[in-house]
Amino acid sequence: MSAQLKRRLNLPLFTFYGLGSILGAGIYALVGKVAGEAGFFTPVAFIVAAILAGLTGFAYAELSARYPKSGGEAIYTAHAFGIPALSTVIGLLVVLSAIVSSAALTNAFVGYLQVFVAIPANIAISITVLIAALIAAWGIKESAMAATVLTMIEISGLLLIIWVGREGLMSFPSRASEFIPTSDTALWGGIMSGAFIAFYAFIGFEDMANVAEEVENPHRNLPLGILIAIASSTFLYCIVAVIAVLSLPAAQLQATDAPLALIYTQNTGSSPIVITFIGLFAIVNGLLVQIIMGSRILFSLSRKDWLPDCLSKVNPHTNTPINATILVTVLILVLALGFNLTALAQFTSFIILIIFAIVNLACMRVKIRDPHPKGVTIFPFAFSLFGFVTIVCFVGFKVWMVLGL
Length: 405
Hints:
The protein is mainly alpha-helical.
């Protein structure tokens, strides 16, 4: 009999699990880097990224309800195209994205930690990854409960930034026209470059699909939780992005790996102890979810005999894929110790965009073959089609900018 996971996540735990991954992955670490590319139009860059993520979010919402199994994208492509090799490649790309993303988050953690103490980066990275791995190996319900607590802390941090930046935010209505970009090509080049980085901030909702086998009432809770998480994070990101560019010049934001700490100090004149402490928790939360997601993909691929059997071993006490968790942890450490935050975030965004394009294609294929599955919420075909087209255009534009064509 194949190894089984248990359905222990209700809708609130599942939603906070995903929301924690999204928030921890982006706004605490990268709003400054986005500002360095998009300048005063940083909020527009986040909106562009939100549209890209949101369109694909509908595909994930539907496919996760159709096929509520661990493995996410690999399972979807298997049902859509029936090519095991393609499903294995997609699954491994997802794992790679989780590993690279985790390495980026760990680098961001060091940026916030060094506000407190000048600890060597290598030591901080190693300890952080090992702590997150231990929590991930503890158990899915326990991990999700820890993620829920950390998510509440993350949200409180963003609300704190909104509060201290309220004066600038109140001026937004009278200055709204300043945030509307012209049709200038050079201007939009910066916005799109910023959106490419900002897209990383929305990575996380796809992680939710990869714990589908551990969610209660998956046909209802999977799509609902995914869409709530995307909508909530978009709202918070746009407000914080407005505060960021009203508080500091883009060059100052770009130069720091702890942007919210700098924004807090600028608006209050006080030491950023509280927001820095919250930022540490936020980033650890994102790291935790990425480790869980990557290990579940390896578990699923192994259970289908597409990877070695040892990766589908489930610990009888914690009901977690222990060997897969160990492998993901080791690979995160290797990348986190060897690359910087921006490079890792951009590489993650590129991988995820490729995966999202294929997921949209898979969604279109299964819609054509089975347009009205029983008990599953169906979204318009145009969402998946437009999601695929916009992603291809966005990647093409980024390549064009990089090559200077």
